[in-house]
Amino acid sequence: MFSIDPGLTDGWVDGLVQIDTDFPYRKNCFYEAIKKPVLEQNLWWYDTLVELAISPTTVNVYASGFSTYTIPLLHKLGTKNVRLYDYDPEVTEVNWRLNNHYLNKLNIEQHTLDVIFDHEWIDKEVDLVLNTSCENMYHFYKVKAQYKKDVIFCLQGTNKPKKGNINLPKDVDEFIFSTGITDILYQGVYPDSGYERFMVIGR
User: Hey, which residues does 156 pair with through a beta bridge?
Assistant: First the structure.
């Protein structure tokens, strides 16, 4: 079960102070990142990985955004090395404040790049690739093909129409096909504000 670490809330306060000071126009984005539906979709992958007894040492997180829940949950999962990849440099700056409490608990790297077109700069020696925003990018099978066959992928997407969502599968089968995952350890569907969120875990 997810529990609140006192240091987590301190990081959120520090992150919000930085947003107020340097990026006030990003405040609504930050609020979106801590809403209940975002917590629920993160608990979904965390609880499922626990049930599958998957405890990755090194994780690549694609489209990491404001990592309000990602870092605490990966730390709770036992992960030692986390690489956050996002195209937004402002998110990267704020994340250092958000995750300050965890910097002495696990190794955190942040990289500002396009995970599709800058893939040659991504370190692919990992145990797990996590992406909860596949709707924001091209079909993930092109990314998966760049990794070794034993790497596990934990991917989520949605069919919810929203600004920035360019990849909206009609059902979980279409979503799985778009990921390139064939050795499926888990697949599921979760309500998403009147639409559906999909998740697949596998190789």
Answer: 199
Q: What are the φ and ψ backbone dihedral angles of 89, each rounded to 5 degrees?
A: -65, -25
pLDDT tens, 9-36? 888 889 989 999 999 999 999 998 899 9
d(CA 199, CA 187): 6
CA distance 23 to 202: 38
Residue 155 host element (H or E): strand 152-158
The count of other CB atoms within 10 Å of the CB of residue 103 is 12
Domain count for the chain, please give it. Answer: 1
Ranges of beta strands (E only) in the chain are: 58-62, 81-86, 107-112, 128-131, 152-158, 184-192, 195-202
Average the pLDDT over 39-63 and give the result.
Answer: 97
Q: Is there a domain that residue 138 lies in?
A: yes
Residue 62 lies in a domain: yes
Residue 1 lies in a domain: no
Domain that holds residue 159: 6-202
For residue 194, the domain's CATH number is 3.40.50.150
Sheet holding 195-202, edge to edge: 107-112, 81-86, 58-62, 128-131, 152-158, 195-202, 184-192
Q: Which residue has the tokens 């959120």?
A: 12
Please compute the mean of the pLDDT values over residues 189-202 and round it to a whole number. Answer: 91
Answer whether 0.90 is exceeded by the pTM.
yes
